Amino acid sequence: MNNSISIHKNVILVIALLTTLGAGTPALAFGQLGHRIVGDLAQNNLTDSAEKQINMLTNGESLAQMSTWADEIRSDKNWHHAAPWHYISIADDETWQSVTRNPDGDIIEGLQRFEKVLKNPKASQKDKWQALAFYVHFVGDIHQPLHVGHRHDKGGNTINVKWFGQETNLHSVWDSKIIEQQQLSYTEYSEFLSRISQAERQQWS
To answer: Which one-letter DSSP state was computed for residue 187?
Structure first.
């Protein structure tokens, strides 16, 4: 798919817009609701050519619909091998140059691999659909800081916190609880974000 790079840029812009709307909160999350918001806004910012190609690939299924598939399959034993693709961890004394990469893959490797699948004219429709679903999901994941986090606390999963009196962990707060507190549907959230001025969009882009 020749438009995979432009799709990536559009989704990155969406992440920036989400950050703008959430300026009054400590952070934004990318759980199921967050991924759908990212997918919906990315869909609304596609070029006509990219949207046409995506609709042909997905039979009209939207990016919002497919954005959560990569999490939904995690309970399927046939996809257990994909668990490390959602994140990359690093120790305090490591740098990007010295970090030991997971031989089973990580989120950086996954994004690069699935972009190649989308560009490959010989790849099957099924492979391209899965590549796009993973790709949209991973662009959301990689902008959740604890998906690119410390190895010793497993991306905040072992840090217990209270969220308005509820026992939870730091990763869960970032993943879903902050954005869910707004009590908006993904389409309502998307609509609010779409009202951000063109000048501010250009600045973020």
So the answer is: H
CA distance 88 to 146: 9
Predicted TM-score (pTM) above 0.85: no
Q: Which amino acid is at 24?
A: G
Segment 143-188, tens digit of pLDDT: 888 888 888 888 888 899 999 999 999 888 888 888 888 888 888 9
Phi (first) and psi of residue 28, to 5 degrees: -120, 155
Q: Quick one: 152 exposed, middle or buried, by C-beta within 10 A (0-12, 13-18, 19+)?
A: exposed
Say which residue the tokens 């806004």 belong to. Answer: 41
Write down all domains in the chain, each with its CATH number in brackets.
4-95+102-204 (1.10.575.10)
The model's pLDDT over 5-42, given as tens digits with 9 standing for 90+, comes to 444 555 545 444 444 444 333 333 467 888 998 899 88
Structure tokens at 154: 């497993």
Concatenated DSSP letters for 12-58? HHHHHHHHHHGGGSS----SHHHHHHHHHHHHHT--HHHHHHHHHHH
State the alpha helices, DSSP H only, in the chain. Answer: 4-21, 32-44, 48-58, 63-66, 69-72, 107-119, 125-142, 170-172, 178-180, 186-194, 198-204
Q: Which residues pair with 162 in a beta bridge?
A: 167
Structure tokens at 14: 């969406």
